[in-house]
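Hi everyone, sorry if this is the wrong subforum. Our group has a chain we'd like a structural model of before ordering constructs, and none of us has done structure prediction before. Sequence below.
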Amino acid sequence: MTSSVYFTAALILAAAQSVPAATDPLGPARSGQLQCFTPDTSRKVCSALAAYTLGPASAVQVRGDILMAPASLLIVMRTSTSVEVRSGAVCGRVRARDIEASTFTVAGRPVPQQMVQLASPQILSVMRSHLNQEICATFLSNGSSFGTQVTIDGVAHPEISETFIWVRPNEGYVVGP
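Answer:
Right subforum, don't worry. Here is the predicted structure as tokens:
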């Protein structure tokens, strides 16, 4: 699996939406929209889709469906974690328990939990360098899409850049290659 897949997973797990800092970074999520990463708008396909659940006070839960490599196998990991908005950025930590609690599908069919338990150590070993680090993302408008600015434990990481668009659930976007 490529490291960019894991960076996308880390980004979704730890942070995953915002608009320019002057506005409510949760605005699109508050209206039920999803983030579609690396969108192919002509086919309505995303490399990952992120949905947010806004709880009491500032509690935010993000659920990400992420296409794993190699994309041709159509393996999708669904994972969830807590994030918070701080100083215009969405911040959180990739935790081992979030990865271990993930579910997977292959070509839309659920993978048995026994198989997931066998794969979790491999996924954790690839992501180990980012486990328990604080990942913050600020997203800036690029016209009709957004680009990410990511920090890990306060250090900027311009090499971890994703493009996304906000989509409504009824628009038919799916995770795929």
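For your construct planning: Helices lie at 3-14, 27-30, 96-100, 113-127. Residues 100 and 122 are 11 Å apart (CA to CA).
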